[in-house]
Specification:
By secondary structure, this protein is of the alpha/beta class. 48% of the residues lie in helices and 13% in strands. It has a 6-stranded parallel β-sheet with strand order 5-2-1-6-7-8. A 3-stranded mixed β-sheet has the order 4-3-10. It has a 3-stranded mixed β-sheet with strand order 9-11-12, covered by helices on one side. Helix 4 (85-92) crosses helix 5 (119-132). The structure holds D-mannonic acid.
């Protein structure tokens, strides 16, 4: 093996190309420069068709509180639909491919064994082919999803799908790397395409809107080549967990609380939720509880929550709560439940309990109003939300988060539902 250096070029394969990957990880890869990028969609082929039709280029609108900065990101060589498993396997078996980044969302890590619908199963096929091709160059799998120990979770998910021989080979040839990613990326608004066209001339069917803030902290464990992400301000660390917990519990935790409590209170966007007196008070409460579980100096946490509040208040970003409300059954167990447990139970964590209660209240309202809840467990949620008796309904909904019947959280959530701010 030649001496690996981050500045060597190579190919990066990205799985799960949506708005976030394009505002964050792929933008950083563009700034790092020099690498070839092949991306795969999460599921549908729509994004692949749209991006390929415009040569892989897309417009990035960085939407500050006062103005937009618009640029064209030109880093993607090809985009394939997730269903193109053969191409992925061929690319992973090629020694030029040195890094795989993933934004497949929380639920993507529990997608099972069918390569047609599971990214970990597809990666397993690719690694088997890489071993069979005799490739010795290490490959790094970098998770960029909102999970604690996301590299660990990814490694487990891939190992579970590997044959015995590739499992043995894995340790010497594959680095599984955790990373903390952060850049709020709402769905693009109707005017975004025109904004890109006016500023750059690019006719863009899939423009990206994002905020000025961006942060990427990556575990410093690459044996092989990787892009020079330092050029994009990326930090490398030996202690990723503290960065992950800070972001998941303070940013994502507050997001989840606002997504449900805000909608229950009758507002639609993050900036409206943080400006709502009672919702904001709940966010403050949740922050106080989450902060007490984080091994970081108070001054650093103060600076972080002050900056977060400003980001949430960005009046031009128009981040809809419904975007964040998706997939609650996989987000709450990462964002809220660990804090409740670490605080010693629901009584010591009323702000986190409010986040859970806002979810049970919101899904109940939504199901009863005849709307679908976007979630991998949408059918179970719909069935549970229809239960008449409050305790039974809350018990059934919390069971979907892994909470046992009779847990003290059930009574706490049932009581908190009644106290949530309403219009
Ligand atoms: C949000 C995240 O969808 C969600 O649940 O909390 O997408 C959030 O905007 C990003 O993690 C910000 O980095």
């Amino acid at each position: 093996m030649s001496n690996p250096s981050p500045s060597d070029v190579g190919r990066l394969v990205h799985l799960g190309i949506g708005n976030f990957a394009r505002s964050h990880t792929l933008h950083a890869t563009a700034v790092a420069g020099g690498w070839s990028v092949v991306a795969f969609t999460g599921r549908s082929a729509t994004m692949a068709d749209a991006l390929n039709a415009q040569g892989g280029k897309y417009g990035l609108i960085v939407r500050g509180p006062e103005q937009d900065e618009v640029s064209i990101v030109d880093v993607i060589d090809e985009v394939h639909p997730a269903s193109d498993v053969d191409t992925l396997v061929r690319l992973l078996a090629d020694p030029f491919t040195a890094v795989v980044t993933l934004t497949i969302t929380e639920k993507g890590y529990a997608a099972g064994s069918d390569p047609a619908t599971s990214a970990p199963a597809r990666i397993a096929l690719g690694l088997k082919a890489r071993r069979e091709a005799g490739v010795t160059e290490p490959i790094a799998l970098v998770s960029c999803d909102n999970l604690t120990g996301n590299g660990e979770v990814l490694g487990q998910a891939v190992l579970a799908e590997l044959d015995e021989e590739t499992k043995v080979w894995f340790g010497d040839h594959v680095d599984v790397i955790s990373s903390m990613v952060d850049r709020i990326t709402p769905s693009a608004d109707d005017g975004a395409a025109q904004t890109v066209r006016d500023a750059t001339g690019l006719v863009d069917a899939v423009p990206v809107v994002t905020e000025p803030f961006t942060e990427w902290v990556i575990e410093d464990r690459f044996r092989g080549r990787r892009p020079e992400w330092e050029k994009a301000g990326v930090q490398f660390t030996d202690d990723i967990e503290v960065h992950e917990l800070r972001k998941l519990r303070l940013l994502n935790g507050a997001h989840t609380l606002m997504a449900y409590a805000g909608q229950v209170a009758g507002v639609e966007r993050v900036d409206e939720a943080i400006a709502h007196r009672e919702v904001r008070a709940l966010v403050e409460q949740l922050w106080a509880e989450a902060r007490s579980t984080l091994p970081l100096p108070a001054a650093q946490l103060d600076a972080y929550t002050t900056a977060l509040e400003e980001r949430f208040r960005n009046p031009r970003l128009a981040d809809n709560l419904i975007r964040i409300a998706a997939d609650g059954s996989v987000k709450l167990p990462v964002r809220a439940l660990p804090v409740i447990a670490e605080r010693g139970g629901p009584e010591q964590a009323p702000g986190e309990v409010a986040a859970v209660a806002a979810w049970t209240a919101w899904v109940t309202d939504r199901v009863r109003a005849g709307h679908e809840v976007q979630d991998p467990k949408s059918a179970e949620i719909a069935a549970a939300a229809g239960i008449e008796d409050t305790t039974e309904r809350v018990t059934a909904l919390l069971a979907l988060l892994g909470v046992a019947a009779g847990d003290s959280l059930v009574a706490a959530v049932a009581a908190e539902e009644r106290r949530l701010p309403r219009p």
